[in-house]
C-alpha cells in the first residue's frame, strides 16, 4: 500500500531533537545485564527481583521513547497487501480471506464451502522466515560469529524479524506489516496485572520469561554496539527494548518447526497467512510436504462460506496459552494442573519402589498432570501412584513373582488393580493432595467468579483470574474423583469382590487404543513430554503419505524448554529457568 516505516526521535523539553547520552544508556544496560545474570533469588524473593528488573527496563524505555520503528495506519490496512503478496509467491488464497472476529481478533474466514480434510491452504518455503533465511540475510555475518544466535533459533528469528522490519524493501515487508503492533502475552502486562497471576502455576514462568527477555536484550544491545559484524545492521542505532519485546512475542506466538529442504534437520520458521488461523479443540491438520516443499493445511472440519476456519494448536494447558500465546481458551479439552510427586529416598522401601518404577519407565520423581476431564490422571500417573502405595509384599510380587514382567505392563491399566487396598490408598492420596493444593490459593472459586463479573476488569487481569479459576476447578474435580473412586473400591473390598487377574488373552488391553492409534504422532509425543519425559529426536521423523514425505506440525516448535514449576508451596518444587523464548501460537490475531 506504499506506506513507509518511520523512526521517531525522542525530543527534549525545548523541542529540539536530542540524542540520549550513549554512555548513560549503556550504564543502565550494563546494570540490567548484571541484575538478570545474577544467581536465582531465594524462595519467596522472585517477585522482588521481578520488580527490580522491571524498574530498570522502564528507565531504559523512557530514554528510548520514540526510537522504535512503527508503521502508519492500522494493521488491517496491510491485509490486502499480505494476500496479494502470498498469491504472487505461490500460496493458496482463494478459499479464505482475513476477517475480524471480535474478541477472537483477526482470523481466516471461508469464502466458499470447505469439506473436512480438504487441502485448502499451502505456503511455499520461499515465503517462510526461517533460521536458514536469517543466515542468508544481512544478519548472517553476526549469526556466524555469535554462539547465542547459533544455539537459540527463536532468538535468531526475532532478530531476523527486526532486521527485515527495518528494511523498507525487504521481501517480507507485506508479512511483517500485517503482524500486531502489540500482544497480550505477559511481556506486555502492566505490573499490577502480572501481580494478579501470583498464586497460579503460570507465575514462575512469567517472571522467568521477563527476566530472560531482559537479559537477552541487554546482551544483544551491547553486542550490536561493539561487534564489527553488527556495523551494517539497520537496527544498530535504534534497538529498543520495546522492539525486542515485540519481536520476541511475534516469534513466541507464531514459530513452528519445519524440515530443512533435504529433510535432514528441523529448523524454526514463521509461516505467513497460516499463522492467522485461530485455535479450537481437535487434531493437528497441518504438515510439511517435502516433495512440493510447502506447508500444507487440511480443514479440521466442514466449513460453510463465511465461517471462521480454525486449526488445533496442540495439547496445551491454559497456563501455556496465556504465557506463550496471550489468550485463555475457555473450552480447553487439554487443560491441566502440574503436580510434582516423588518417592522419598529416606523411605525404607525406596529401592524396591524405584526399581519397579524404572521397569515401567517412570522416574522415581517426576512432574505429572491432573487433567480437566475424566479420568483426571494419566496411565503413567496411575502407575506411579500404584507403586507409591504398594506394600512390601506387593512390591516383591511385581519384582519377583509369577509373570512379574507382564504385571509391570498392567500398572497403568485401570482394569488390573494391584489390590483393593492399594486402590483405596492411591485414590485417598489423590483426594487429599488435591484438597491440600486448593488450600494454597487466597481466593475460592466462587470469589473468582464474582471478580470476573466486574465490568472494569482489564483483559490481562481477566485472563489471570480465569487461570486461577481453571486451576481450582481441575483440583476440585480431581479431589471429587478421588473421593468417588475411594468409595467405589471400599465397597469392592467390603463385598469381598474377586480381584481381576491378568491373563495372556488380555494382552490386547496393554496396547494403544484405536482412538489413540488414530491420533497424529506429535500429539502422543507431546503428552509423553507433559508427563515429564524428554522429547526424543525421532519425534521429528517424517511420516509417509503416498510417495510424499509429510511432517506433522502443530503450532509449537518445542524449542529450548522453559522453566516447569508446580504451584504447591509446601513441597518447595522449583526447577531452573531457561534462557529461551517459549514457542507457541497466538489466538488473538
UniProtKB/TrEMBL annotation:
Compartments reported by the entry: Cytoplasm
Provide a GO CC annotation, any one: cytoplasm
Chain segments annotated as coiled-coil in the UniProt record: none
The UniProt catalytic activity note for this protein reads: L-histidyl-[protein] + S-adenosyl-L-methionine = N(tele)-methyl-L-histidyl-[protein] + S-adenosyl-L-homocysteine + H(+)
Locate the region Disordered. 556-589
Q: Name one GO biological process term.
A: methylation
Q: Which GO terms describe its molecular function?
A: actin binding; protein-L-histidine N-tele-methyltransferase activity; protein-lysine N-methyltransferase activity
Q: Where is the SET domain?
A: 94-314
Alphabetical keyword list: Actin-binding, Cytoplasm, Methyltransferase, S-adenosyl-L-methionine, Transferase
Comp. bias regions, Polar residues: 573-589
Pfam families named in the record: Rubis-subs-bind, SET
Report the InterPro entries cross-referenced here.
Answer: Rubisco_LSMT_subst-bd, Rubisco_LSMT_subst-bd_sf, SET_dom, SET_dom_sf, SETD3, SETD3_SET, SETD3_SETD6_MTase
Enzyme Commission number(s) from the entry = 2.1.1.85
Q: Which CDD domains match?
A: SET_SETD3 (cd19176)
Q: What is its main location?
A: cytoplasm
Membership in a protein family: Belongs to the class V-like SAM-binding methyltransferase superfamily. SETD3 actin-histidine methyltransferase family.
This protein is called protein-histidine N-methyltransferase
Amino acid at each position: 500500500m506504499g506506506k513507509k516505516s518511520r523512526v521517531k526521535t525522542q525530543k527534549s523539553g525545548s523541542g529540539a531533537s536530542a540524542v540520549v547520552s550513549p554512555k548513560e544508556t549503556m550504564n543502565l544496560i550494563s546494570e540490567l545485564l548484571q541484575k538478570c545474570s545474577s544467581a536465582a533469588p531465594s524462595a519467596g524473593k522472585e517477585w522482588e527481583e521481578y520488580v527490580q528488573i522491571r524498574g530498570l527496563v522502564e528507565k531504559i524505555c523512557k530514554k528510548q521513547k520514540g526510537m522504535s520503528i512503527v508503521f502508519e495506519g492500522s494493521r488491517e490496512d496491510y491485509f490486502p497487501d499480505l494476500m496479494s503478496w502470498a498469491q504472487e509467491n505461490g500460496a493458496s488464497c482463494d478459499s479464505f480471506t482475513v476477517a475480524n472476529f471480535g474478541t477472537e481478533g483477526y482470523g481466516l474466514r471461508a469464502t466458499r464451502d470447505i469439506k473436512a480434510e480438504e487441502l485448502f491452504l499451502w505456503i511455499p518455503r520461499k515465503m517462510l522466515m526461517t533460521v536458514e533465511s536469517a543466515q542468508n540475510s544481512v544478519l548472517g555475518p553476526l549469526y556466524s560469529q555469535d554462539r547465542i544466535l547459533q544455539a537459540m533459533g527463536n532468538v535468531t528469528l526475532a532478530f531476523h524479524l527486526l532486521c527485515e522490519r527495518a528494511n523498507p524493501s525487504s521481501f517480507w515487508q507485506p508479512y511483517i506489516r500485517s503482524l500486531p503492533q502489540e500482544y497480550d502475552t505477559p511481556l506486555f502486562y502492566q505490573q499490577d496485572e502480572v501481580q494478579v497471576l501470583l498464586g497460579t502455576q503460570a507465575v514462575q514462568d512469567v517472571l522467568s520469561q521477563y527476566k530472560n527477555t531482559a537479559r537477552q536484550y541487554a546482551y544483544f544491545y551491547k553486542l550490536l554496539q561493539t561487534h564489527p559484524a553488527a556495523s551494517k545492521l539497520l537496527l544498530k542505532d535504534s534497538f529498543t527494548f520495546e522492539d525486542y519485546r515485540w519481536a520476541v512475542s511475534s516469534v513466541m506466538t507464531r514459530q513452528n518447526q519445519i524440515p530443512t529442504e533435504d529433510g535432514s534437520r528441523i529448523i524454526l520458521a514463521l509461516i505467513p497467512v497460516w499463522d492467522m488461523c485461530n485455535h479450537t479443540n481437535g487434531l493437528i491438520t497441518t504438515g510439511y510436504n517435502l516433495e512440493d516443499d510447502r506447508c500444507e493445511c487440511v480443514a479440521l472440519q466442514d466449513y460453510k462460506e463465511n465461517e471462521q476456519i480454525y486449526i488445533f494448536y496442540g495439547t496445551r494447558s491454559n497456563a501455556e496459552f496465556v504465557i506463550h500465546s496471550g489468550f485463555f481458551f475457555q473450552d480447553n479439552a487439554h487443560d491441566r494442573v502440574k503436580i510434582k510427586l516423588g518417592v522419598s529416598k529416606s523411605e525404607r522401601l525406596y529401592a524396591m519402589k524405584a526399581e519397579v518404577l524404572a521397569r515401567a519407565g517412570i522416574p522415581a520423581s517426576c512432574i505429572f498432570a491432573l487433567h480437566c476431564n475424566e479420568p483426571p490422571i494419566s496411565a503413567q500417573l496411575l502407575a506411579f501412584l500404584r507403586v507409591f502405595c504398594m506394600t512390601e509384599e506387593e512390591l516383591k510380587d511385581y519384582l519377583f513373582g509369577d509373570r512379574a514382567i507382564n504385571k509391570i505392563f498392567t500398572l497403568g491399566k485401570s482394569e488390573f488393580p494391584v489390590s483393593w487396598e492399594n486402590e483405596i490408598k492411591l485414590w485417598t492420596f489423590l483426594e487429599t493432595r488435591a484438597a491440600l493444593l486448593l488450600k494454597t490459593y487466597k481466593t475460592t472459586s466462587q470469589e473468582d467468579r464474582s471478580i470476573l463479573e466486574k465490568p472494569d476488569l482489564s483483559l490481562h487481569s481477566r485472563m489471570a483470574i480465569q487461570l486461577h479459576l481453571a486451576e481450582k476447578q481441575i483440583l476440585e474435580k480431581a479431589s471429587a474423583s478421588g473421593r468417588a473412586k475411594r468409595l467405589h473400591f471400599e465397597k469392592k473390598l467390603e463385598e469381598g469382590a474377586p480381584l481381576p487377574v491378568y491373563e495372556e488373552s488380555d494382552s490386547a488391553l496393554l496396547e494403544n487404543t484405536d482412538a489413540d492409534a488414530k491420533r497424529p504422532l506429535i500429539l502422543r509425543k507431546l503428552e509423553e513430554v507433559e508427563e515429564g519425559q524428554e522429547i526424543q529426536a525421532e519425534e521429528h521423523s517424517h511420516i509417509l503419505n503416498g510417495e510424499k514425505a509429510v511432517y506433522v506440525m502443530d503450532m509449537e516448535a518445542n524449542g529450548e524448554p522453559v522453566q516447569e514449576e508446580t504451584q504447591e508451596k509446601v513441597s518447595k518444587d522449583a526447577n531452573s529457568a531457561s534462557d529461551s523464548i517459549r514457542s507457541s501460537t497466538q489466538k488473538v490475531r
